[in-house]
């Protein structure tokens, strides 16, 4: 089965890494202030994926549900940190980390549990070969949606503070005063996944499907799995973005419906 | 009848301030920029956190939801904000607005906000806040961007409405002449306090 996959050696990977270095040079030349981030993210990819390659076999051999839950928790916490790191104006205090993490937790875990128990149905339902990659794909995409939603929400609120306050002065409640902004932030968070659904199969051949086919699954089975994943991811990202935008909007106002911009940090250039 | 009463109102470096504005009375407030005049108005409208309490006819602001309070105790900021393309979209009942009383054409309701001058926007903002039928007006330099003729129009409109509907008015102004024309009492904000002149 696996004979169909051509093995890659370190020279192949080094050539690909060269492309990323080239991009880093370009961003440095354009003064985007991103070259360091590109390089660090590249190094993280190498280290994290090689580590995963080392432990994946043990991971998949795990049978204890608590241990698998613990792995899921670690994945969630790292995703939460990533969401915060992508904010130009994160919330201060525990909210900075907690808000995105909570939304991702509720949405990703619920949908993964639902899919494992009622759709895929492995035995036992928490079988790591299914549960961990499913949760990982959920978190990876939800993370993007949540980060975009939150970033747009806080950034636009900061820029449109005068308008929001004017609307409050005229007697609008907080929901109505921030409605345009929270809607737009929700749209921003949903665009990538809706685009991915629209492009799936024609413009892009999704990574998981490619992997399954390379590993010998029938293309039809791989397609069905990919459809399932796409729907899960879309629903998960959508619910998490809705929750994030609601919680975030709520947090921007206090109990007397006053806009409290001191609850978010000042500008961080990314 | 609506009396506005501030009790030990304190915000940042201003206060505690005690003040009662009677129904139908216009109280002018002046002071150097940065002294805290706008902060005072924003605290009264409960747009920013503050200590102390504000009463309207002996009912504290805490007896109302924040939107109810702000509709009655209406704040006109120094610079008005507009978030829709058309003027009309900012009024709940555009047909009932009398534009002529501030020297605007009746067709002003169909205007695009982006084409209005600063002065036109300011006059529209005054009409917009009055359309909510507030019981108390907090005006932050309402004539700052207006020519003498329109300044007079705004002054007589506010005076008439204050008298007719018994509004309590706090009016922030930099112009001594204006204060002489409209004020029943005049206070200066200085060193974190409010001093009657």
- H-E string of chain B: EEEHEEHEHEHEHEE
Instruction: Please give the CATH architecture of chain B.
Output: 3-Layer(aba) Sandwich
- Tell me, briefly, the overall form of chain B: globular
The major pleated sheet of chain B works out as:
6 strands, mixed
Q: Oligomeric form of this entry?
A: heterodimer
Give the structural class of chain B.
alpha/beta
Q: What is the tally of beta strands of chain B?
A: 10
Shape call of chain A: globular
Share of β-strand residues of chain A: under 5%
How many helices of chain A? The count is 9
In whole angstroms, the N-to-C terminal distance of chain B is: 26 Å
Cross-sheet strand order for the largest sheet of chain B: 6-7-8-3-9-10
Mean pLDDT of chain B: 93
> Mind telling me the C-alpha Rg of chain B?
16 Å
> How many structural domains are formed by the residues of chain B?
1
Total DSSP E strands of chain A: 0
Estimated share of beta-strand residues of chain B: 25-35%
Uncertain spans of chain A? none
| Superfamily (CATH H level) name of chain B | P-loop containing nucleotide triphosphate hydrolases
CATH class of chain B: Alpha Beta
Q: Biggest sheet of chain A: strands, sense, closure?
A: none
Short structural summary:
Chain A has 270 residues and is an all-alpha fold. Chain A has helices at residues 10-29, 35-61, 65-85, 94-120, 128-159, 161-169, 174-199, 207-214, 219-251.
Keywords:
heterodimer; A: 270 residues; mainly alpha; 9 helices; globular; B: 197 residues; alpha/beta; Rossmann fold; six-stranded mixed sheet; four-stranded antiparallel sheet; 10 strands; 27% helix; 27% strand
Task: Describe this protein's structure.
- The complex is a heterodimer of chains A (270) and B (197).
- Chain A has helices spanning 10-29, 35-61, 65-85, 94-120, 128-159, 161-169, 174-199, 207-214, 219-251.
- With 270 residues, chain A is mostly helical.
- Chain A is built from nine helices and no strands.
- Chain A has two domains: 1-61, no CATH class; 64-263, no CATH class.
- Helix content of chain A is 75%, strand content 0%.
- The longest helix of chain A is centred in the last third of the chain and has 33 residues, at 219-251.
- Chain B has 197 residues and is of the alpha/beta class.
- Chain B has one domain: 3-Layer(aba) Sandwich (Rossmann fold), CATH 3.40.50.
- Chain B is built from five helices and ten strands.
- In chain B, the strands form two sheets. Chain B has a six-stranded mixed β-sheet, with helices on both faces.
- In chain B, a hairpin with a 2-residue loop joins strand 4 (51-56) and strand 5 (59-60).
- Chains A and B meet through helix 6 of A and helix 2 and strand 6 of B.
